[in-house]
Amino acid sequence: MAKNGDKIKMTSDQDPLCCCEYINIDGERSHLLALCCDCEAIDDTVDRWLKGVAVPESSYSKIWSTVMDRLRIPWSGGARQCPWEVLIPAATVPLLMLFASLSMATMMCSLAIIPLILLISRVVLRHQPKSLFYYIWTCSSFFTLFYIFEFYVVPTLLISFYEHLLFAALLAAALLSWYRVRSRRGFCQPSSAADAADTFCELCEAARPARAFHCVQCERCVLLRDHHCAWLDCCVGGANQRPFVVGLASAALAMAQAAWLTVACVCPGPLTPWLVLTCWPDSTAGAAALFGALYALVCAVLCSAVLAHQCLLISLGQTGCERRRQLTPPGPPVGLLVNWYRFLTGRDEPAPEPEH
User: Fold this and answer.
1) Which position among 229, 234, 267, 321 bears the catalytic label?
2) Which of 64, 101, 138, 201 could serve as a FRET partner for 15 with CA atoms 20 to 30 Å apart?
3) Residue 324 CA to chain centroid, in angstroms?
4) What is the CA radius of gyration of the chain?
């Protein structure tokens, strides 16, 4: 093979790719070390800027495509593409936790940076219905907080066996609910026979049952659709609202308990509202754990807020879609107790999806 800049021309189709090589968007063999080499779109754009000439929109699109194509990680059989919407959330929480452990000022900065990153991602992804950004953020936050608690807080031996057991039980309930929410989507099955109460979905080009709504992200109609949860990357509807509510309650309690126990271990003494601001651990691990406790507390508050909203909808007998569109559920009002009875017993729950 012969090298030309960052491009490696293939002399044979049988030449295997090493872990750092890949086939780029131009169909040429390239290498990870040539990340910053030979980009005609960037050269042309910079040249136009220097000359004061307008840059066509296609040049920016070409630059973005090239950057996304070269953002890869070494892998057996060839470097794998790693989109920014996966890479950034996977690395942000652990890096911010390390940054926060430097001083109290960096901790406050880290807490302020998190909503800023989420706001920027919201603006960037507003025209991209499908994105794993928030789901990867959820996974990264979970594993980071779990690591801090299990490998720093628990080894201090300042918490009892039963406190640890309660935390493990709450965490297991949250994870099981997480799995059930993602495994039961409640998609409407296409049917040629339409009932009188059915409506027609122009996007699915099929009839859909009453109280079913189309999800742009899932590209399917969901029965009793409430909303699309970007943090779990799935729709919440009649088929999985119960495990969603259980998961919210379990996660909120687990995060609140983890925050309480972490602060008690890192800053021993009487717990006061200003303890975090007056206590700074001696070790870097303790400072990182303190940041993790604050982050877990914020997660607990947010989960509690979503849980309260779900309880309101259940009490009213409405779905999130119906409330946003100011639609009244069919049939006469049945009252709070009957709505909760139907929710807890699954009276309105759709039948499981058939196996494919």
Assistant:
1) 229
2) 64
3) 23
4) 25
Q: How many CB atoms lie within 10 A of CB 31?
A: 18
Smallest CA-to-CA distance from 110 within 98, 95, 100, 121 is with: 100
- In SS3 terms, the chain reads as CEEECCEEECCCCCCCCCCCEEECCCCCEEEHHHCCCCCHHHHHHHHHHHHCCCCCHHHHHHHHHHHHHHCEECCCCCCEECCHHHHHHHHHHHHHHHHHCCCHHHHHHHHHHHHHHHHHHHHHCCCCCCCCHHHHHHHHHHHHHHHHHHHHHHHHCCCCHHHHHHHHHHHHHHHHHHHHHHHCCCECCCCCCCCCCCEEECCCCEEECCCEEEECCCCEEEECCCEEECCCCEEECCCCHHHHHHHHHHHHHHHHHHHHHHHHHHCCCCCCCCHHHHCCCCCHHHHHHHHHHHHHHHHHHHHHHHHHHHHHHHHHCCCHHHHHCCCCCCCCCCCHHHHHHHHHHCCCCCCCCCCC
**First CA to last CA across the chain, in angstroms?**
46
> What type of residue sits at position 301?
V
| Pairing assessment for the beta strands 29-31 and 7-9 based on DSSP bridges | antiparallel
Burial degree of 201 (CB within 10 A; 0-12, 13-18, 19+): middle
**Tokens 């989109």, residue?**
83
| Mean pLDDT of each 10-residue bin along the chain, 356 residues long | 43 67 80 74 80 78 76 80 83 89 86 90 78 92 91 84 93 95 82 59 80 87 90 91 95 94 78 62 82 92 96 92 85 83 75 48
∠ Cα 276 99 64 (to 5°)? 135
| Residue 204: active-site member | no
**pTM exceeds 0.70, yes or no:** yes
| Residue 3: per-residue pLDDT | 44
